[in-house]
Amino acid sequence: MKAVVYRSYGGPEVLEVAEVPDPKVGPDSVLVSVKAAAVNPVDWKMREGYLDGVFDVFFPVIPGWDVAGRVEAPGFAAPEFSVGDEVIGYVRQDAVRNGTFAEKVAAPVRTLARKPHNLSWAQAAGLPLAGLTAYQALVHGLKVGDGDTVLIHAAAGGVGALAVQIARAQGARVIGTASERNHGYLRSLGAEPVAYGEGLADRVRAIGTVTASLDLVGDDSAAATAELGVAPHRIASIVDASVAQAGGVYVFVRPDGADLSALVDLVEAGKVTVDVEKVFPLERAADAMRLNAEGHTRGKIAIEVG
């Protein structure tokens, strides 16, 4: 099969398209014919070696953890899915080797859910990692619900846009930080936008009293949240692990079929959608990663495969 691979750590230039063997399908895995994959910051951070101390990495590596595609063959202990089923998945495995930037991927059953019928392949591929990150932070970590006002830092990004919609679906009011060019976009998602930068806490305070906060960017977000008097156990971050030491919630997203199915239900109920900024062919995966690494995109970047 055709796949994007890298044979050593490095920049986008280490990526190449190569012919590699089809993946083997374990008993509780499902062979998925990939229609689309999504690019996430972890993909290029992994490629550059930043997570070498966290994961066992076996070269050559096929990058990518997000997938949308059709089941080609279920493992003999995977009755949950049948040939032809349309699925999505956050296919993070225990070791880094066989990812989703390929024509086929063997995905553990625990990483999959059915594809939402009202999303394109590219949109569906953008839901798992970003959606699960937001869902696990807001629903499990912060237990956001009616009566909450949630401050989401970097609310217009891939995770942020989904976090806004999930928080709204939970009944919360949302205040989101973003550059001014994205304020209209945040309003369209149901958030009240505020600009980044000095005086952030005062601008937020003028809108309302924040009861929970989700940090997706780092920098001075924690300091601004502290100024607002948010209780430590109602502060979550996906970039600053030190929040856990202060009683907050640090989130490193984990594969969870039940959570992913809950997201699918929200999408099909019209409460959550996925915005895709740009779609690249498999052969231009390096360009897709470069664009993601710039950090200025609104919504998701997808790679079209099948």
Automatic annotation (TrEMBL):
Transmembrane segments: none annotated. InterPro entries: ADH-like_N (IPR013154), Chloroplast_QOR (IPR052733), ER (IPR020843), GroES-like_sf (IPR011032), NAD(P)-bd_dom_sf (IPR036291), Quin_OxRdtase/zeta-crystal_CS (IPR002364). The keyword GTP-binding does not apply. The keyword Membrane does not apply. Residues 10-303 form the Enoyl reductase (ER) domain. Keywords: Oxidoreductase. One of its GO terms (molecular function) is oxidoreductase activity. Its EC number is 1.-.-.-. It is an enzyme of class 1 (oxidoreductase). CDD domains: MDR_like_2 (cd05289). This is NADP-dependent oxidoreductase.
